[in-house]
Amino acid sequence: MRTEDVLAAILTGLWRWDNATGIVELDAEAARLLGLPAEPTELTEGAVRSRFHPVDWNEIDGVVNLALAEGTLAESRLRVMDEGGRVIRTVRSRAKPTVDDSGLHLVGTLQEVAEPDPGRAARSPVTGDWRRSREAFLLDAGRALAEARSTAEVLRVAASLSMPGFSPDGLAVFGVAGDRLTIMGQHGYRPGDEDPFADMPLDTDYPAAEVVRTGRAIYLSTPEEYRKRFPATWPLARRFGRESWAFLPLVVAGRTMGAWLAAFTHRVGFSPDERSVLTTVARMLAQALARAGLAESERELSLGLQRTMLPVLGPAIPGMEVAARYVPTGGGLQVGGDWYDMIQLPGGRAAFVIGDVQGHDVRAAGLMGQLRIALRAYASEGHRPDAVLSRASRFLYGITEGGGGGSDADGARFATCLYLEVDPATGTLDIARAGHPDPAVLMADGTVLLRPTDGGLPLGIVPDTDYPTTRMTLEPGETLMVCTDGLLETGGHDMETGWLRVRKLLEEYDPHRESLEVLADSLVQAVHGPGSHHTTGPLADRREDDIAVLLLSRAGEPAGRAAPPRRVVLTIAQAEPERIAGARRQMRELLHDWADEDQRDSAVLMVSEMITNVLVHTDGDALLVAEARGEHGGRRLRVEVADASDELPHRRRPGEMASSGRGLVLMEMLAHAWGVDPRGEGKSIWFELYEGGTPAAG
Q1: Predicted local confidence at residue 5, as pLDDT
Q2: Beta 455-456 vs 428-434: how paired, if at all?
Q3: Phi–psi pair at 638, nearest 5 degrees
Q4: Which residue range or ranges hold the GAF domain (predicted)?
Q5: Distance between CA atoms of residues 107 and 119, nearest Å
Q6: End of a domain among 507, 533, 554?
Q7: What SS3 string covers 271-285?
Q8: Are the C-beta atoms of 490 and 544 separated by less than 8 Å?
């Protein structure tokens, strides 16, 4: 007798479903149970779905997935509907799901069952309301587990889960260390209760160990079932007074990484709905633990890299105060290409380096480490700043694909860098710059000025590049700031608006009341908020770029905060006319608190005209020296622009349409005093402005 005949005799239908084709095959009895003519037929998935109550059909996916996960039958009760939407009968479906290269297959039976007793259904937790509560619970649990950042947070979330209708009161998460079972966390037990289970061999006759070995869940509905299946370890579990237990595998990428125990003080039948909830929670818990473990490993690796690659500042420099911060970018490893360094040189001098290797990844961090070592070596050999950067550029070019000898998949990389040597006794700074932002100086009276310095291309772009050196003096009470572009551009800012933000912070700093460390913290916190540190600690994910900042202050007490003069010294080469805009900006910053705004605009206009005349009418460079001296409200500004030409300027009377010839006319109209002084080689054109309208005394 055929199987179909046997099933028909007991009023049981047979059906097959192929996920690849979406076709459902029904024998005669299965077709009859679905309200169709009693003959074998083939239907589409949509046609079959139309025969069932939509609420019941929506449960099918969860039941099938649960059966696949547990290796059991997919069993469910379904209400069959007629064309008018009326329930004609209830059937029970049992199917065996299998998966092969062609997809998912189901082979199952259908059998009519009696409608459940209404009173009994009302008392059952598995109702429509329960299902809605279950869906809300799973959404909340998934969200909470996804947001957990560490293993401890994941375990706290797992302990706080309150499942609808059958919440466990005892939870434990087991891990695996070699061939032994460990306990990662527990809830609902007293301290020390976990000791017998904390270091258990995986071959022990214990449910969690078997779950790890087999990858399949174990449900124990009664103490009798527990005692019968696991007699050796039942005495360990009996003392906790539980009535039902569920042990579920924690599986990630096909690997069982541990087990999850949910224990109940009341009897639980572990219906398909209940098992589905537990299986879903176990899957989310496993993924959350895997994410947290990976993140913790990355943080540990990044901290190790930071400790290895980022130096602490060296011994104190007499007469100098130094502070530095490094903040890595967000996402992934907490390392990147930004760095700072301090190098002790002979004769009491010191070198400071700050740089930024392109990228925010381990590759950038590795190149940064190599470049930092090379810079230290070149500096220790006694080379001057320009030679140090030239050699460093050749070195970086050679170890990346820029030199043709690299094998890195992501190609050549470059780095910006600023290298300066300082003589603490005199405050003299020799600065060489490779595509890096210019330094800024906080003067003793609170004025903040960008200090334009000569520079060259970023390191590593071409093998042989010149890096001219700029010399300046850091006066007593002044502070120099150098930083990477991350400090300026983070938070949606560009270089211009970012500089305005940083400048405001520098102006608010009072060295008489606060240390340089306070200023370093305030600069970082302005971007990242409180709690950001320079070499340790994870930060908020809103970081957009690495940040390195280095502060150097020269000790000394000038006679009052307004006593030292403000000074700008700037060279504009024939080949760099674009630096005229920088000169205008320097003048505005020098006179940022000048009482008369019209005088400030006049000074900017005259400086622009004087420099332009030099570049247009001579073959040499222009040297700008501007100095503001005196007390606020009565200061005197003197500006000189010198060049190497002996030809003196002549007053002209330009026509209305003339594009030049107004320089001396403007100075005569706008300056309080002006003149032209011949020199041994060349000349100097100068003007003066008096803040109060008359020359300041002295």
Answers
A1: 60
A2: parallel
A3: -120, 125
A4: 136-299
A5: 34
A6: 554
A7: CHHHHHHHHHHHHHH
A8: yes
